[in-house]
């Protein structure tokens, strides 16, 4: 396996990426696939894992840190801003399509968890992505996400906190942060027990910064992931299970997307699909079959 860093620009910000290939021959053109992970994460978590598995199957898989996260530039830091991430996905797709070792004619995209909803929007807005795969895709709107935060009252409380944090940033440039993950802390982005983010052998890696800009609640809790579904025509695969979030949303999206859509239903919880061997192998097998039939073969 060969990996090497790349950099590209998104809206004037330099983003840091990593190329994964099973060959060091830069003259060998391979089908290209971009891979991103869940909210508040960095490329070294679920994205690099899936990229390595796809690279082993003959793809040039490219991961990157969104603006404000990891090794990428961008201010404010740790700000979960859907519009910025959607723009980054489009920039990454344009960059990957320009690489001479990526097979021309179409690029694939794998979105794990929350980045799947951003990728869907990016495709709707014209990002050059020819084929899309969602793994344990998180597609929410305010009504569906509210129960995670104690209902609409919990949403309002967090929106109030976010407005105060945004006012502080506007007044003196201070980014008010809270933990991205801390069980029992209702100010944290994720406040229920999740071994993935607690375990150093899983997602609690040195490269991951356990912080969230508190202003993130404003765009996160009001984002509508399903609003663009009716204009997406790219061939799409959903890898999901009844143990993943919003299985009914997958069925709704399947009925609304304009292009060919398929779904494979596995076993396991949401975070099992982040890094557990059985779920990852199940997902990669399905992704390989999907991209083999929807990306250029020569």
From TrEMBL:
Record's protein name: Lysophospholipase
Signal peptide: none
InterPro entries membership: AB_hydrolase_fold, Polyketide_trans_af380
